Amino acid sequence: MDKQPVLFSDLGNIDYQTAWDRQELILSENVAIKTAARLQQLDLNPMQLATQHHLFFCEHPLVYTLGKSGNIENVLLSDDELKEKGIAFFRTNRGGDITFHGPGQIVGYPIFDLEKFTTDIGLYLRNMEEVIIQTISEWGILGARSKGETGVWIDADIPGKERKICAIGVRCSRWITMHGFALNVNTDLTYFNNIIPCGIQNKQVTSIEKEIGEKADVTKVKSTIKQKFESIFNIEWMD
Q1: What is the pLDDT of residue 45?
Q2: What is d(CA 4, CA 127) in angstroms, rounded to the nearest whole number?
Q3: Against a cut of 0.85, is the pTM above it?
Q4: pLDDT(44) > 90
Q5: What residues are labeled active site?
Q6: Which domain holds residue 171?
Q7: CA angle, 74 then 145 then 139, to 5°
Q8: Quick one: which of 35, 54, 70, 83 could link to 111 by a disulfide (CB 3.0–4.6 Å)?
C-alpha cells in the first residue's frame, strides 16, 4: 500500500478548547467530503476522496478532561478547588474516563481517515499504543499493554507495580478520528493525585522522567514519536 500523506503541525502550548475546536473543524471538513460524495451517489474508492490526514502535537495548560462515558466521581476536587488551583475541566466526546494534561506532557491528536488505513478501531488503538511502546523503548523503558485497558503501561502484569505512562482516548465519526494520546515525559505527576486516572483504582501513573531518573529531551521524544508513526502507520509527512 502506498504511504498516506499526513499534514503535521506542532501547536506548542495551546489551551484545550482551542485545540479541540481545531480538531472538530478538520473532522467536520473531512466528513463533509464523504457526505457530498454519498449524496452525489459517487461510488468512489476511499483512496479517491479528498479527505486529509493530520497529526497535531501540543502541550496544554493544566486541565482535566472527562470522556463521554467517564464518571465525574473520579474527579476528586470540587469546582471551587479546581478554580483555586487554576485547573480547567472539560467534558469531552472521546472515549475513556478522566485524565490530566499539563506541562511536560506530549499530547498527540491524529485526525486520520481510517478508510484509507483500516476500518478497525481496535487495530488503530493498538497501533497507537505500539507507537508509544517503541518510542519509550529508546529510553530503555519496557512498555506494554494491560488487558482490557487502553493505553501504555509498565509492569502491567505485576500487581501493585502497574503504572501508566500514556493515556489514549479517541472519537471516530464516519471513520474520521480525533483526540489521541497523552505521553507523560517530564510531567508533574502530583496532579494525578486529584483524580482516579482513567477511572482505574489502585494503579499508579508514571513518566519518562520518573522511570529514567532525569528529565528527557522533549524535542527528541517528539521526533521519535514521529518516526514511529511513520513506520507503524506507513505514512509520509507533509509540513
Answers
A1: 74
A2: 15
A3: yes
A4: no
A5: 198
A6: 4-238
A7: 105
A8: 54
pLDDT of residue 195: 85
Q: Tell me how many domains the chain contains.
A: 1
How far apart (Å, rounded) are the C-alpha atoms in residues 70 and 97?
A: 4
- On whether the CB atoms of residues 238 and 8 are closer than 8 A, the answer is yes
Q: Are 198 and 163 in contact (CB under 8 A)?
A: no
Q: How confident is the model at residue 200 (pLDDT cuts 50, 70, 90)?
A: low
Percentage with pLDDT > 90 across the chain = 81
Give the tens place of pLDDT for each residue, 98-150. 999 999 999 999 999 999 999 999 999 999 999 999 999 999 999 999 988 99
CATH number for the domain harbouring residue 165: 3.30.930.10
Q: What radius of gyration do the chain's Cα atoms show? A: 18
d(CA 206, CA 162): 9
Q: 3-state secondary structure string, the chain? A: CCCEEEEEEEEEECCHHHHHHHHHHHHHHHHHHHHHHHHCCCCCCHHHCCCCEEEEEEECCCEEEECCCCCHHHECCCHHHHHHHCCEEEECCCCCCEEEECCCEEEEEEECEHHHCCCCHHHHHHHHHHHHHHHHHCCCCCCEEECCEEEEEECCCCCCCCEEEEEEEEEEECCEEEEEEEEECCCCHHHHHHECHHHCCCCEECCHHHHHCCCCCHHHHHHHHHHHHHHHCCEEEEC
C-beta separation of 197 from 99 below 8 A: yes
